[in-house]
Amino acid sequence: MAMVAEFLEAGEREYVYEDVLFGEGFAQYLDWLAKGERGELEGLVPWSAYWAVDPASGELVGMSSLRHQLSPWMAQFGGHIGYRVRPRMRRLGIGTNLLQLTLQQANARGITKALVVCTPENTGSQGVLRKSGAVFESEVSTEGHRLLRYWVATSAPLIRTDA
Asked: How far apart are CA 115 and CA 123, in angstroms?
């Protein structure tokens, strides 16, 4: 809840997908995530959610999601992987670690190249993608929003961000 509140305070509503958390509570949110992983949510492809937790404080600092397959819309505008880092924890290598670890999970599921999209304004994400060896493919638009499409190999070696 604190991380979601931080996104909202920063004016970043587009990074908040946990409406079930607000409406129904944490137990129902966990159930929603489990149903999503099993592919039991109508209109959504199966996905896995991953949390980045600060080991010292136990605080949630970021999240990623891996779509196990792509619907036609996701293949154009959403991609395999989405990740987000709470605003005050950015520029610490968390985004790079999240992407790298999620790429490993994609590889374990047989996905050899993952599609990741971001907005042209999200220079931090673009840097993470370049650092991870992503290759820019194209720019697309949906509902007035521009998106940059990148492909990244899931078998790429891990990048150490703590060195």
From this structure: 17
Residue of 79, 123, 87, 64 whose CA lies nearest to 4: 87
User: Does pLDDT of 98 surpass 80?
Assistant: yes
Residue 27 makes CB contacts below 8 A (sequence gap 6+) with none
The pLDDT assigned to 145 comes to: 86
On whether the CB atoms of residues 7 and 15 are closer than 8 A, the answer is yes
Residue 118 has pLDDT above 50, yes or no: yes
Q: What is the DSSP string of 76-130?
A: IIIBSEEEEE-GGGTTSSHHHHHHHHHHHHHHHTT-SEEEEEE-TT-HHHHHHHH
d(CA 79, CA 43): 16
Rounded (5°) CA angle 74-80-82 = 100
Nearest one of 163, 78, 156, 73 to 116, comparing CA atoms: 78
pLDDT tens digits for 66-78?
A: 999 999 999 999 9
- What is the C-alpha to C-alpha distance for residues 44 and 86, in angstroms, rounded to an integer? 25
